[in-house]
Amino acid sequence: MDILGEISRHLQAGSEEKVADVTRRAVKTNIPPKEILDKGLISGMNIIGEKYKAHEIFLPDVLLAAKAMYAGMDVLRPLFVKEDMPSAGKVVIGTVQGDLHDIGKNLVGIMLKGAGFEVIDLGNDVAPESFVETARKENASVIGMSALLTTTMPAMKRVIDYVKNEGLDSRIKTIIGGAPVSEEYAREIGADAYGYDSTHAVECVKKLIAEMHR
Amino acid sequence: MREIIEVAAHDAQPTEQDVFTGQGIPADRRPSATTTQLFVETKKVFSACAQCVGVIADITIPAFETLYAGEGMNEAATPLDAVFRKADNLAVFAVTVGGAVSRKIDHFFKTHEYALAGMLDAFASSGAERVADRVQDNYRKRLIHENIATAKTMVLRYSPGYCGWHVSGQKKLFAYLKPEEIGITLLDSFLMKPLKSISGVFVAGPKDIHIFEDNFPVCSECQTHSCRSRIQGILQKQE
């Protein structure tokens, strides 16, 4: 029986209890936790991401799947030694200074975790130095910023300038998003990427990190 | 005249379609049974924690002209600029569904109830519009009751941050209206707190004054052109 496939299917169906049960079963059969994570949970979320992108499913389905993923992660988490916690990369996210909207940022955070990234969510109304100093201290590769007002968008440039002025731009990349933000604005302020929705943001982050490792 | 109007949570309930549209589900697609169940659950949460209230104050055209000029950051040509001077009556307003809803959304995110958080967020956004609708209806009825308007009077609303009226316009609006009395504050970024709040102006007048083509320069940046359906819908409802 394809137990990892079963985990993925239950995750896609948003069945958190079944994901937790089958994950426990997989652990008992001595499948390595990383394999369960990659081929069960993350695999399931990848399929969810593809279906969402193809408009086959919608936001509530994605969010239910994310909760199911967390149920599986809760089973696996104690099995990982902290230093060996697998991660596709570390991303610092937040809503910029002066802005309190966080639903978009939260969705990106959920999708990034679903893709295996370690996410440090600074919340909302985040000062530029907080983004950068957190990324520096945590050795994060990407800073993701969200803004929902034209009046708060300029804070994104302050973060990007801070990164550059500190000489960190080769090791910390930036991605921006939010309703008033655009690809053009991202270019204008020197952001490394622009995510037009949460799925696209994850793809962009994967690309940024892949390019950094080349 | 300035008035505070409380709106019962059940009068601020949006439709399933409004909420599902807010979650990216097109009108022609049937959501899953789980999604529908989520909506039902969210409706209960909203009913339990929403505190819907609005404040409205009459304003003359000259006074609104000053208010609308704001911080000087509006687009040069806007639909509202073309409309408000033709109005018979104007009133500025602010409404909210209350801070408890936003706190509930945060709580759901923190406890991994993401689907509920997302649904409640969409529900509350639509709910705030429903509160604005109720206050708008109340305004129109008052004008008719006071023989200031007739049954042919149409009322549409405009909000800072849309259609070329810069979001900084809220500064003068807040100074005039003082929505702090109902718990709405304005941050330095011109963001309202609680988040699920709406402010703006009601423009009351005959049908003809509300009709405009959405071909202003600012319209090219608009992703929804919701003015088209708003004008059409309200005019059809009131005919």
TrEMBL record, chain A:
Highest taxon of the lineage: Bacteria
Signal peptide location: none
Q: Where is the B12-binding domain?
A: 88-214
One Pfam family, short name: B12-binding
A molecular-function term among this protein's GO annotations: cobalamin binding
Q: Which UniProt keywords apply?
A: Cobalt, Metal-binding, Methyltransferase, Transferase
Q: Which GO terms describe its biological process?
A: homocysteine metabolic process; methylation; tetrahydrofolate metabolic process
Cellular component terms (Gene Ontology): cytosol
Segments forming domain B12-binding N-terminal:
1-88
Gene3D superfamilies named among the record's database cross-references:
Cobalamin-binding domain, Methionine synthase domain
Matching entries from InterPro entries are given as: Cbl-bd_cap (IPR003759), Cobalamin-bd (IPR006158), Cobalamin-bd_sf (IPR036724), Met_Synthase/Corrinoid (IPR050554), Meth_synthase_dom (IPR036594)
Q: List, alphabetically, the SMART domains matched.
A: B12-binding_2
The record, for PROSITE patterns, names: B12_BINDING, B12_BINDING_NTER
Instruction: Report the sequence similarity comment from the record.
Output: Belongs to the methylamine corrinoid protein family.
The protein's name in its UniProt record = Methyltransferase
Provide the species name: candidate division WOR_3 bacterium SM23_60
From TrEMBL, chain B:
**Pfam families documented for this protein:** Met_synt_B12
Give start and end of each AdoMet activation domain. Answer: 86-207
GO terms of molecular function: methionine synthase activity
Q: Which positions are tagged coiled coil? A: none
Name it.
AdoMet activation domain-containing protein
Q: Which Gene3D superfamilies does UniProt cross-reference here? A: 3.40.109.40
**Domain of life, per lineage:** Bacteria
